[in-house]
Amino acid sequence: MKVVVTGAAGFVGSQVGRVAIERGHDVVGVDRRKSDGSLPFSIETADITDRNRMIDVVGDSNAVIHCAALVGPAPATADPAAATEINVLGALAMLEAARRNNCRIVNLSTATLYGRRSDAAPLAETDPADPVGIYDATKFMSETLCDSYRKSFGVDVSSFRTGFVYGRRHSTGDYFIGRMLSGVTRIREPGRDHPCDFTYVKDLALGLVQAAEAPELPEPVYNVTGGVARTRGELAGIVSQYFPKADIELKPGVDPARHLRGPCILDRARRDFGYAPAFNLEAGVADWIAAEQQADPL
């Protein structure tokens, strides 16, 4: 199968490309950044909002795994115009490419669309979306476009909601490990008891490739997360086991800057393409740190 991966030089996209190669597929990456040579596939340097270019790049591909995005509430709030252009118009360009070339789109979305849920109850895809901020709004618009192309033109597209994705090459300090590796060992933050449905990047990447491989995807939306709520305090405790100098102190309670929600229910993904996370939080942290120690390119 020929697979196009957008955002292929990024955190999730690079891992998706590697998994697809390992599973025997031909991969073409798309990214605004040039490859640094560490990836096992070629990258077309292009802007995903360029519809004509995307139509050409997709060509005779069987599937597009669309990971390119301006990710996260803070960057989107800082530049709403850029977030809308990349997340919404980028999705539109990929949908047009899929429509013209008759291929599947696996559209990476976000579980932040469920909004703030004070009861922290498990979330199914049938629960109503409640986008809160700019980032949520852009991903909701992209999902709406996907569903409209599915209904109006018969495009084979589904959206995949994930969240709290962690692993090597993650560019922020949300999961403590990056800061520990850079020598920042003293951390003081709120949110010790904040529940998070942590998703290890390798689980997510495999799930997205499995979705691309599936004979059919009958649902417009799927949850692809770890499926279990763990707290940031638990994460801090696990990370501290690997860094003797770690001094992580989180204030009790939830983090007001983060969405409060429960874990995602994974029944649809399990049924339709065999999604089954292999890494719990302990295993994911261990694998991430082992990769750092081995200087694995990804």
From TrEMBL:
Coiled coil feature spans: none
Organism: Flavimaribacter sediminis
Pfam families: Epimerase
Domain annotation NAD-dependent epimerase/dehydratase: ranges: 3-224
InterPro entries according to UniProt: Epimerase_deHydtase, Lipid_A_modif_metabolic_enz, NAD(P)-bd_dom_sf
UniProt name for this protein: NAD(P)-dependent oxidoreductase
